[in-house]
Write a structure and sequence with these properties.
Elements lengths: L6 H28 L4 H9 L18 H14 L1 H21 L2 H12 L5 E4 L15 E5 L2 E12 L6 E10 L5 E9 L5 E6 L10 E12 L3 E2 L5 H37 L1 E2 L2 E2 L4 H29 L5 H25 L2 H4 L5 H11 L6 H13 L5
Parallel strand pairs: 1-4
Antiparallel strand pairs: 2-3, 3-7, 4-5, 5-8, 6-7, 9-10
Helix pairs in contact: 1-3, 3-4, 3-6, 3-7, 4-5, 4-6, 6-7, 6-8, 6-10, 7-8, 8-10, 8-11
The structure holds flavin-adenine dinucleotide.
The site of flavin-adenine dinucleotide has 23 residues, from helix 4, strand 1, strand 3 and helix 11.
């Protein structure tokens, strides 16, 4: 699978895989069962430089490329989906906007501690009434006495309650056409008037925290405006393009985990006096999984490579995320069915893979929204 990858990337994959299988895998079940955020593991990843893989060394990161980051997220997600999501949200969504739009002072103050793993990042775009239509943001930010005052709330925010720094979208005005003019802000977790509300009980990814952010007259310094006033939505759209590569990589990890569980089971489980893998229905299921996973991997790595080359990667990222997440859905479902009744009980991890994989068809834009993005780019229609 890694034949054409540079040696540096192959080494990273081996290192992450060894660490995840050796040190982290034994901790997964307990944390998932108790819905406990893996703080110690996250701190350890920070110490190893894995919370800032694609961030330049000058800003506290490891200075590797997006392909390396995608491989790391894939390998982390292959063993523990919750940890993969924590890392992806922290890196792409927490660090990403500050790297993209931050001033040098903001990078020194906020990005360096995040990329070096001392502070976890979170990203607040989604609201109760603004999900796929993120432009419908209702949270507001107004200037008062040289500060920004934020009011409103966010929903479904990864790393809620665990992050020390949040990047948040808020409405700062209205455009001539009546649409929300959105700006981006950096909100430290200890800001007065800011709090974390309810944490969600989710279908899967139980050890990752997902929750509400509340802004009740939260006051942040004028300097915490990220990028130009009114240009925040563009920043967020760019960040979502990049984030799709990491969600695609996470999906790839889930799909690979499903295949890696299905293959030995198909060899070892006997029915009718034969290994079930000798029945064509089972064997073809494995063949389809393996083929789709390689196609998904090619799409995800291609999107990462395009981005690393400084080329347009928006379409490729949407295609990679759409395809990889749907492959993850099919592969985890197939692995569960292949385990029969054992797939439905907790003795095997395939149920967890299926529950976790569903998120990849929803977060960073649902599959419908990916199709919308892809079709718009291809059709290029201007319909009023
Ligand atoms: C575990 C988890 C973690 C998350 N982490 C974060 C985070 O860190 N930060 C953050 O900001 N958000 C986060 N989200 C939110 C996530 O991005 C949204 O849930 C997602 O974008 C969908 O928005 P929604 O839930 O409001 O669904 P809706 O937008 O209400 O969509 C409902 C359905 O309608 C469909 N639909 C909507 N509009 C269209 C359209 N124009 N065409 C076709 N179909 C359409 C959708 O595809 C979907 O099937 C997270 C969500 C989850 C579940």
């Amino acid at each position: 699978m890694d034949l054409d990858l540079p040696a540096e990337h192959q080494l990273l994959r081996r290192t992450v895989r060894d660490y995840m299988e050796g040190e982290v895998a034994p901790l997964v079940d307990e944390h998932e069962r108790e819905r406990r955020f893996p703080r110690q593991v996250v701190d350890k990843l920070g110490e190893m430089g894995w919370l800032g893989i694609p961030i330049p060394e000058a800003w506290g990161g490891a200075g590797m490329d997006i392909l390396a980051y995608a491989i790391a997220v894939e390998e982390i997600g292959r063993v523990w989906g919750s940890l993969g999501l924590i890392v992806a949200a922290h890196t792409s969504l927490g660090c990403g906007p500050i790297l993209l739009a931050g001033t040098d002072d903001q990078k020194r103050q906020f990005l360096v501690p995040m990329a070096s793993g001392k502070v976890i990042g979170g990203y607040g775009l989604t609201e109760p009434n603004a999900g796929s239509d993120a432009g419908g943001t209702r949270t507001t930010a107004t200037r008062e006495d040289g500060e920004w005052v934020i009011n409103g709330g966010k929903r479904f925010i990864t790393n809620a309650g665990q992050a020390g720094t949040y990047v948040v979208a808020a409405r700062t005005g209205t455009t001539d056409k009546g649409a929300a003019e959105i700006s981006a802000f950096i909100v430290p977790a200890d800001t007065a008037g800011f709090s974390v509300g309810r944490l969600e009980e989710k279908l899967g990814l139980h050890a990752s925290a997902t929750g509400e952010l509340r802004f009740d007259g939260a006051r942040i310094p004028a300097d915490n405006l990220l990028g130009e006033e009114g240009k925040g939505f563009r920043t967020f759209l760019t960040i979502l393009d990049g984030g799709r590569i990491s969600i695609g990589a996470l999906a790839l990890g889930f799909a690979q985990a499903a295949l890696d569980a299905a293959v030995p089971y198909a060899r070892e489980r006997h029915q009718f006096g034969r290994p079930i893998g000798s029945f064509e229905a089972v064997a073809f299921r494995i063949a389809d999984m393996a083929t789709e996973i390689e196609a998904a991997r090619a799409l995800v790595y291609r999107a990462a490579w395009l981005r690393d080359q400084g080329r347009d990667y928006g379409l490729a990222a949407a295609q990679a995320k759409l395809y990889a997440s749907e492959v993850a859905g099919r592969a985890t479902n197939a692995a569960l069915l292949l385990h029969g009744g054992y797939g439905y009980v907790e003795d095997y991890p395939v149920g967890r893979f299926l529950r976790d994989a569903k998120l990849t068809e929803i977060g960073e834009g649902t599959s419908d929204i990916q199709r919308l993005v892809i079709a718009r780019r291809i059709l290029d229609l201007r319909v009023q």
